[in-house]
Please model this.
Amino acid sequence: MSTLADPPQFSLFLPQMRMDMATIEERVRAAEACGFHKIDLMDHLNPPLLPASPMYDAFVTAAAVAAWTERVRIGHMVLCGQFRHPALLAKMIVSLDHFSGGRFDLGIGWGSVPDEMERFGLGDEPPAVRAARLRETLEAVQALLTGEPVNHQGRFFQMENAQQQPTPVNGHIPIVIGGAGRKLTMPLVRDFADWWNCPVYGMAELEELLPLSGNARLSVQRAIGLARSSAARDEVVATAQRRFGDWALVAGTPDEVAEGLQADREMGAEQFVLQFSDFAAPETLELFAAEVMPAVT
Model:
C-alpha cells in the first residue's frame, strides 16, 4: 500500500473543444460537486488533429470556470510558452488568480505541437530554443509577480523598470510542468515546478527521473474509460481505445480503474490528471467519485 500521507488528488482534464459553453459549465459544476480537486483546460489555437473543430480560448474559458465554481483549482495542461510575452502572461495569470480567489495554477510548457506555431506564424524554433525561451519566460514572470521593478536583459526578452501589481493572492502561484525529457524538461521541473506532471512513458523510468525533479510533487496523466457494469465493459473499453489508443489508458469497471490508478499511487503519484472517454459526462463523474476515488489510497 502507499505510504503517502495525504489522500490523492483528482484533476479533470476537460479540453474546451467540441462542446458548447453550456456543456462545459455542466461538466465543471458536476466535477466540483463530485469532489474533484482541479479543472485543467488546454491551450491551442485550434484543436490538435482537428483544425476545423470549434474550441474556446484557454484564459477566457478558465475565467468562466472560476465564475462557475467556488472550490476547485483551475489550470491548464498546458499553456504554450510561445504564445505570450512574459509581461502579458504575468498580468493574465495574476488577474485570474485574483478573480478565482487564489485558485489558479500555472501549467506551462514549451510547445507540444510544433507545426501549430508554424501554421500561425509563431516561428519554427527547435526544441532547445523553445525550452530556453520557456526558462526565460518563467524567470521574468516570477520577477514580475513580486510587484517590484524588473530590469531584464535576456536572450528573448528585454524589460527596463517594468513593474506590475497586484501580487498573487497567496504570495505564489503554483507552477506545473509536464514531460520527462532529461536534457530540456527535467531541468525546468527542478528549477521552477511545484508539480511535475510525469507522462506515462516516464513512469517506467521513474526511479531515475525523480532525483531530477527537485522538490516537485508528482502527478500522472491518465485517460479513463469507466464502465457502469460488467455488461457495458467491452463497449466502453472499445470506445476508449478508439479515442486514446493504448496511450495512458485505464479502462474497465470501477474496480479495474481503481486498481490501475492504485498502481500509479504506489509509485508515488499524489495527483491524477484524468481525461474521460465520454467527455466527462456527469453520471460518469458521479460513478468515479462514488466507487473509484475511495478505492485509491
In short: Residues 51 and 159 are 35 Å apart (CA to CA). Residues 127-144 form the longest helix (18 residues). The chain is about 40% helix and 20% strand. The chain has a mean pLDDT of 95.
